[in-house]
């Protein structure tokens, strides 16, 4: 469209000859009609030239916004060249996803492998962030507890009445809780062996891990583990 307008301007200025295509475009523009040569640039329409130009500008704005800002929240279907293709694309994508091979990460089998996996995912500096003599011991106890609650899921209703998705994030936050309270003991120069067991059991057993539990018997199970381990 830009090229034909430039050629038409040169033809009207006498710089080049006026051929049949340029003459047809000139006549259509003079009569306020859409040139036939421009119709393939947009979906089929009966609009006059002025309305077609407004429609063309809006379509261009949608494409530019799509490129610069990503997929639009609301799609103006009539502004697409072939709306059917856009509607078909999500269906094809869904079919591809349904037929694809799904890969998921699950806890390894067995307490030993589960604990090793937890330590493997832990950053190398985590065990050195706190100088309290019981810090590493508590991290191991937490890793053991984390492995136990994950292992119980494999026994269905015998393990938990309701399945709970405990993840690495739960373990990481609990490590930070232990680090915070033990470091606070060191900073206050108090008896470092006066570990706030009740506070740790409450935050770990009832807030972090117990916060997911909605069954009363499952909650009692978590609390029993906390009382046994801590």
Automatic annotation (TrEMBL):
One of its GO terms (biological process) is microtubule-based movement. One of its GO terms (cellular component) is dynein complex. One of its GO terms (molecular function) is dynein intermediate chain binding. It comes from the Eukaryota. Residues 136-229 form the Dynein heavy chain AAA lid domain. Residues 2-95 form the Dynein heavy chain C-terminal domain. PANTHER family: DYNEIN AXONEMAL HEAVY CHAIN 10 (PTHR22878:SF63), DYNEIN HEAVY CHAIN 6, AXONEMAL-LIKE-RELATED (PTHR22878). This is Dynein heavy chain 10, axonemal-like. It comes from Diaphorina citri. The gene is LOC103521108.
């Amino acid at each position: 469209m830009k090229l034909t307008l430039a050629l038409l301007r040169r033809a009207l200025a006498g710089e080049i000859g006026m051929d049949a295509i340029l003459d047809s475009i000139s006549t259509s523009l003079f009569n306020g009609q859409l040139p036939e040569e421009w119709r393939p640039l947009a979906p089929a329409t009966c609009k006059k030239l002025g309305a077609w130009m407004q429609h063309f500008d809006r379509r261009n704005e949608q494409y530019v916004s799509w490129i610069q800002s990503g997929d639009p929240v609301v799609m103006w279907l009539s502004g697409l060249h072939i709306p059917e293709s856009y509607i078909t694309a999500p269906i094809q994508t869904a079919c591809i996803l349904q037929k694809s091979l799904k890969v998921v990460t699950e806890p390894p089998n067995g307490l030993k492998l589960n604990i090793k996996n937890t330590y493997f995912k832990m950053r190398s500096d985590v065990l050195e962030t706190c100088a309290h003599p019981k810090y590493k011991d508590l991290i191991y106890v937490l890793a053991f507890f984390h492995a136990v609650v994950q292992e119980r899921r494999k026994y269905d209703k015998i393990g938990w009445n309701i399945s709970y998705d405990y993840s690495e994030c739960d373990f990481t936050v609990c490590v930070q809780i232990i680090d915070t309270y033990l470091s606070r003991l060191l900073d206050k120069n108090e008896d470092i062996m006066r570990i706030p067991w009740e506070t740790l059991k409450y935050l770990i057993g009832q807030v972090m891990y117990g916060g997911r539990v909605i069954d009363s018997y499952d909650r009692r199970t978590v609390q029993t583990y906390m009382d046994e381990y801590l």
